[in-house]
Specification:
single chain, alpha+beta, three-stranded antiparallel β-sheet, 3 helices, 42% helix, 11% strand
Length: 101
């Protein structure tokens, strides 16, 4: 059993605009929240695309990528930090102390 909801005000506006000979087109969105959204998007995408190319000098047998989740060795490398699987609870405890998440 499908339930349909009629949106009368949208239909009335569309009929009024079409009757006046004006095309119904989407409007652009402007404002400070939209600029903040685009800024955060650009920041996170740049981090996502740039971090694989950052290099970090470690010991001779360790990988030289700055941020690496190594599934083969079971380690997380993040710059000067190396997290082993048995230390993962320390990382989650640290992250939980940072905020309300």
């Amino acid at each position: 059993m499908a339930v349909t909801i009629e949106i009368d005000h949208a239909k009335t506006r569309a009929k009024g605009a079409a009757a006046g000979g004006l095309p119904v087109v989407p409007q652009s969105v402007r404002g400070p929240i939209r600029r903040l959204k685009w800024g955060i998007l650009m920041l996170t995408l740049s981090v996502y695309y740039v971090t694989p190319f950052l290099r970090w000098d470690r010991c001779p047998n360790a990988p030289d990528q700055a941020v690496l989740l190594g599934f083969a060795n079971g380690r997380l490398y993040a710059f000067f930090v190396e997290v082993w699987p048995q230390d993962l609870y320390l990382v989650t405890d640290y992250w939980s102390s940072l905020g309300p998440f």
